[in-house]
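> call design_seq(struct)
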């Protein structure tokens, strides 16, 4: 049997909507064998982040070694990396094992405002990890911090995308979830072509983990052998279905519905 494999290097969300939990659910739904290296444990639910407990560098390295020395992987997604030291260590390990198809989700802040990346780590992210990426998936505030520029117009977005490619990434998707437009447009750029992926903005508060789910769907599609543009287009369909049919659990910003995409394909409504 030809098994596609994907590794997520990210934080744990005890509430199950974001982080490692969202990534593994997404891999499973898209037919990819999921593996994980935990960078931090968070106490978290739909109301916010109650605590962050980092895993030691040794512990992170050990987990990646366990995968690199035995199972290998067809794609890697990074999420919450917490500090400069973690970014350095993870970048070293990705180079050591020459893992292919790296998707970097430059997670900085949780939906409720809790900081998931230290300020001084941004430079390390740009200099060490982004140059290894097949795709970087910033939301607009993250793209502003990475490029150190204000992004208001489509031209600003294109300039920021160019700047991220100049940092060494093969491609970038600038996500439009944070805008206030009637449609959500994610802008893909691979150094040659700009692709605008537009869908109706779904009016919901249940958007916890949208970014994690989107980036892990890209990693899963790359693991299955899809090209970058096709992987991003498929991931957009996956996240759209997951937001369109929310589970409506928890009192705050609830998680997306990872089952919805497959149910839609089978014609069954959740
Ligand atoms: N209300 C919405 N309706 C439709 N699609 C959405 C909506 N919000 C986000 N998306 C889609 O979800 C994906 C993630 O975008 P978003 O900008 O929310 O990421 P993010 O801010 O990194 O998420 P997170 O807060 O989980 O880190 C994108 O593909 C975006 O188009
Ligand atoms: C662990 C973790 N990673 C990423 C995010 C961003 O959504 C979150 N809220 N929690």
């Amino acid at each position: 049997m030809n098994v596609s494999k994907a590794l997520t290097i990210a934080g744990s969300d005890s509430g199950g909507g974001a982080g490692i939990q969202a990534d593994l659910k997404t891999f499973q739904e898209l037919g990819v064998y999921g593996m994980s290296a935990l960078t931090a444990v968070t106490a978290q639910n739909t109301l916010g982040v109650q605590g962050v407990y980092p895993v030691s560098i040794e512990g992170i390295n050990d987990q990646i070694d366990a995968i690199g020395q035995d199972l290998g992987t067809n794609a890697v997604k990074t999420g919450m990396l917490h500090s400069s030291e973690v970014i350095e260590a993870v970048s070293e390990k990705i180079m050591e094992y020459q893992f292919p198809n790296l998707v970097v989700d430059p997670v900085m802040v949780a939906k409720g405002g809790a900081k998931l990346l230290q300020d001084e780590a941004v430079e390390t992210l740009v200099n060490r990890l982004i140059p290894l990426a097949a795709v970087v998936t910033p939301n607009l505030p993250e793209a502003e911090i990475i490029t150190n520029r204000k992004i208001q117009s489509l031209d600003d977005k294109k300039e920021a995308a160019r700047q991220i490619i100049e940092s060494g990434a093969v491609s970038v998707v600038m996500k439009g979830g944070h805008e206030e437009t009637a449609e959500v447009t994610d802008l893909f750029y691979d150094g040659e072509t700009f692709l605008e992926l537009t869908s109706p903005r779904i009016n919901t508060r249940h958007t916890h983990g949208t970014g994690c789910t989107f980036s892990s769907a890209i990693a899963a599609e790359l693991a299955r052998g899809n090209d970058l543009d096709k992987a991003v287009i498929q991931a957009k369909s996956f996240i759209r279905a997951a937001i369109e049919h929310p589970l409506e659990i928890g009192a705050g910003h609830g998680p997306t519905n990872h089952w919805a995409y497959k149910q839609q394909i089978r014609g069954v409504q959740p």
